[in-house]
Structure prediction request, 290 residues.
Amino acid sequence: MERNSRSGWQGKGSLEELMRERVRGTIEVMVEQELEEALGAASWERESDRRAGYRHGHRSRTLSTSLGATTIAMPRARIEGPDGTRHEWRSQLIPRYQRRTERVDEAILGVYLSGTNTRRLRGALAPLLRATPLSKDAVSRLVGRLKEDFAAWATRELGELKVRYVFLDGWYPRVRIGRKRVRVPVLVTLGVCGDGRRVILDLRLAGVESERSWLEAVHSLVERKLGCPVLAVIDGNPGLAAALKAQWPGVAIQRCTNHSVPGRAHSKEVRSPLTGKTLEPVSLGQVVAA
Prediction:
């Protein structure tokens, strides 16, 4: 193996190995510091009034990071609880059964949700996972956790956001249903807050983009404490307009420019209730890109 005369490092791929070694060292230092705080004493302190337990060796642990699988030495210790009983110390930084970092889990979910099965997923992410096992059960647990996170996000309260404008439109991505990939309507609601922030308020699958489905979506926003916005920008769907008027009778409605440019000469002017000025037409794409 030849040595690079400039860098002094040997072998193909030595940069990745060096980076993994640095990552391993950093993780071990952080875990050691976590344990020191739990024990109330450093490893070299034999006696301390604050000591709450004692170390008893290390165990090897493989953790998949964005640079690949890394084997780290996890310290072990016995901690004395408030009631005087001793128990095995557990790291909060790297929980007991964690085998992958969040970024690796996100990569796995991203590939899986794009329609790739577990076997192809392992092949696609082989450089990242290396020898780390990835079973169907592991992927199922990740998807289950994603569903729980999405359910919590989809039911969060919206009142504190102070939303002034909303953009509502139907999006038709391809999704995998069984063994087929088909287009399904996703009802999307974006909001613009009083301070200019843009936030996604709601995403929901619908069997069909209809007045009933949009009424359920808007009703959900109201239940989550979203007040009546100043302006709603829509795609011209009559069912959506009817749903908005049924829930928020006083809301001003404007058609998105992407859908209304051919008939813009016949469109109504919409004036801001705050300034009285004519509002320029805007599109959902402009809001997302901004």
Observations:
- Residues 159-289 form a domain with the Nucleotidyltransferase; domain 5 fold (CATH 3.30.420).
- Strands lie at 53-65, 68-80, 86-88, 163-171, 174-177, 180-183, 186-193, 198-205, 231-234, 252-255.
